[in-house]
């Protein structure tokens, strides 16, 4: 099946498998009034691309990835939660909860303190804060106020590259020899353990890089130095993985770039170095 990532200028970025039905008939836009940004049979690639392009064009970013909507389209989101003034109780024990939450991504409900929704990020918060019911060990719960406040103070739809992978450079002992590992080594180990190199591809990482650069630019405009550092670090992580997926390594790419510029002559103009 082919998925189309389309853009209606000034209106929206969306995804469909049927341009005629979705864009022409339902939305009333015809060839020449919209553009096809990308098309692919890889739903995950197109879904990530949709969110990135929505951010780039300044449109509202969809709460749930297109791929997740399609997974849930023919599935009943019928997890029978019990919402009281203080808590949301799930009908599963803590050790079996996460799988059921993931199965119901996109589900939302109202609490006394605001609306909440199941996303990958909010599920991570739930699993860190969930408690076993004192009355029934086959049930678990979270406090609504804390959950709603987390939504107020975080982006529940952003899946950040883990800067925690950037642990200090470390020394490991192999075959009786101390081997120094760089941050790049640690990033590659982190990515390899999570299957990024076996299941990922350069296209997806390239789109991820655009997203992280956009986040860094926003932080610069806001003079948010903590987020600037975080954004730059995230870009380095993505570039490290992108290089690996392209059968090279980031160190070699940096060396090539430095050798290219080290003897370059030029001058500063409008805040940018321009070569002669």
Describe the protein.
The protein has 11 helices and 13 strands. It has 276 residues and is α+β, with helices and mostly antiparallel strands. It has 3 domains: 3-73, no CATH class; 82-153, no CATH class; 163-261, MazG-like (Helix Hairpins), CATH 1.10.287.1080. The strands form 5 sheets. A 4-stranded antiparallel sheet has the order 4-5-9-8. Strands 2-1-3 form a 3-stranded antiparallel sheet, with helices on both faces. A two-stranded antiparallel sheet has the order 6-7. Strand 4 (82-83) and strand 5 (87-90) form a beta hairpin. It is globular, with a radius of gyration of 23 Å. The model is unreliable at 159-169 and 171-179 (pLDDT under 50).
Strand content: 15-25%
What would the average pLDDT be, to the nearest integer? Answer: 82
Number of spatially distinct domains: 3
Instruction: Report the major sheet.
Output: 4 strands, antiparallel
CATH topology of the largest domain: Helix Hairpins
**Overall CATH class of the largest domain:** Mainly Alpha
Q: Rg from C-alpha positions?
A: 23 Å
Structural class: alpha+beta
Order of helices and strands: EEHEHHEEHEEHEEHEEHHHHHEE
From the 3D coordinates, which CATH architecture of the largest domain would you assign? Orthogonal Bundle
The largest sheet has its strands arranged as 4-5-9-8
The CATH superfamily of the largest domain bears the name MazG-like
């Amino acid at each position: 099946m082919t998925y189309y990532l389309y853009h209606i200028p000034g209106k929206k970025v969306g995804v469909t498998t049927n341009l005629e039905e979705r864009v022409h008939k339902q939305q009333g836009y015809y060839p020449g009034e919209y553009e096809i940004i990308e098309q692919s049979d890889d739903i995950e690639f197109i879904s990530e691309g949709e969110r990135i392009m929505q951010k780039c064009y300044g449109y509202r970013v969809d709460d749930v990835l297109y791929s997740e909507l399609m997974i849930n389209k023919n599935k009943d989101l019928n997890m029978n939660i019990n919402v009281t003034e203080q808590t949301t109780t799930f009908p599963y024990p803590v050790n079996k909860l996460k799988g059921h939450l993931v199965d119901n991504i996109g589900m939302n409900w109202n609490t006394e303190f605001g609306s909440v929704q199941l996303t990958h990020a909010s599920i991570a918060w739930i699993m860190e804060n969930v408690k076993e019911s004192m009355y029934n060990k086959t049930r678990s719960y979270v406090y609504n106020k804390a959950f709603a406040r987390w939504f107020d103070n975080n982006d529940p739809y952003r899946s950040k590259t883990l800067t925690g992978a950037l642990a200090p450079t470390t020394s490991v002992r192999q075959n009786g020899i101390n081997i120094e590992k760089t941050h790049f080594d640690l990033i590659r180990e982190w990515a390899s353990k999570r299957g990024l190199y076996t299941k990922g591809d350069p296209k997806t990482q390239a789109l991820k890089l655009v997203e992280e650069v956009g986040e860094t630019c926003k932080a610069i405009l806001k003079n948010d130095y903590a987020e600037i550092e975080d954004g730059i670090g995230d870009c380095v992580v993505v570039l490290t993985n992108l290089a690996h997926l392209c059968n090279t390594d980031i160190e070699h790419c940096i060396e090539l770039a430095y050798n290219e510029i080290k003897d370059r002559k030029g001058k500063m103009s409008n805040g940018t170095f321009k070569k002669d």
